[in-house]
Amino acid sequence: MYARPFIDSLEFAGSGKQIHAQASFEHMPRLLDLLENSQGVLNYTLQGRLDSLGRPVLDVSITGNCQLTCQRCLNGMDYAIRHEARLVLCDQAALDVLDDEEEEFEGILADAHLDVLALLEDEILLALPIAARHDLGACHVAEGEGERKDERHPFAVLEKLKRN
C-alpha cells in the first residue's frame, strides 16, 4: 500500500527540509483525466527554506514524461514535463497582497497538513499545454484520412438551389 506524503508546510520550510522522491501518475486522479494512459513516474524535489525577505518558501522541481492526446490526430504523444516553481507560503491576507504586488512569485496557503502529491498535481496541471499537438508533420494520421474525399465546394448544393 502506498502512503501519500503530507507535510506541515511552515515547519518544513522553516527547518529547510527536503524531499526527493518519485510519484506515479496513478495517484493523481485530476491529472489522469488529461493523460492518454497512467503509465510513468515523476521525479520531484521539494525544498523548504526562507527567502531573502524571511518568508517561508517551497521550491518545487518536477521532471518526467507522460502521454498526452494530440489534438490534431487524436493519437498519443510523448510530452516531457520539466517544471520548477517557487511557492511563497502565507495566510489568506498575505496571499491577497502577494497576488496583487509580486508577479515573480506564486503564493499558496500555508497548511499544517499539505498533501505533497496534490501540490505536484496542481503544478503539473498549470504547466501542461491547453491543447497538446505534435509538431507539424509529425502527426500519425491514417493514409487518406486528411484528404478531402469530395473535391466539390461544400456550398455547391446551395448554388443550385439559388438558381431554381
Structure description:
The chain has 164 residues and is an alpha+beta fold. It has one domain (6-163). Helix content is 24%, strand content 33%. Strands 2-3-4-5-6 form a five-stranded mixed β-sheet.
In short:
This protein has 164 residues and is α+β, with helices and mostly antiparallel strands.
How are the SSEs placed, and which strands pair?
Elements: E1 6-7, H1 9-14, E2 18-24, H2 29-32, E3 41-50, E4 56-69, E5 76-90, H3 92-101, E6 106-109, E7 114-115, H4 116-127, H5 156-163
Largest sheet, in brief, is:
5 strands, mixed
End-to-end C-alpha gap: 74 Å
Shape: elongated
Strand content: 25-35%
| DSSP E strands, number | 7
Helix content: 10-25%
Rg is 23 Å
Spatial ordering of strands, largest sheet: 2-3-4-5-6
**Overall number of domains:** 1
Please trace the helix and strand order, writing H or E for each element: EHEHEEEHEEHH
Instruction: Determine the mean pLDDT.
Output: 84
Low-pLDDT residue intervals, each spanning 5 or more residues: 146-150
> What is the structural class?
alpha+beta
Number of helices: 5
What keyword list fits this structure?
5 helices, five-stranded mixed sheet, single chain, two-stranded antiparallel sheet, 164 residues, elongated, alpha+beta
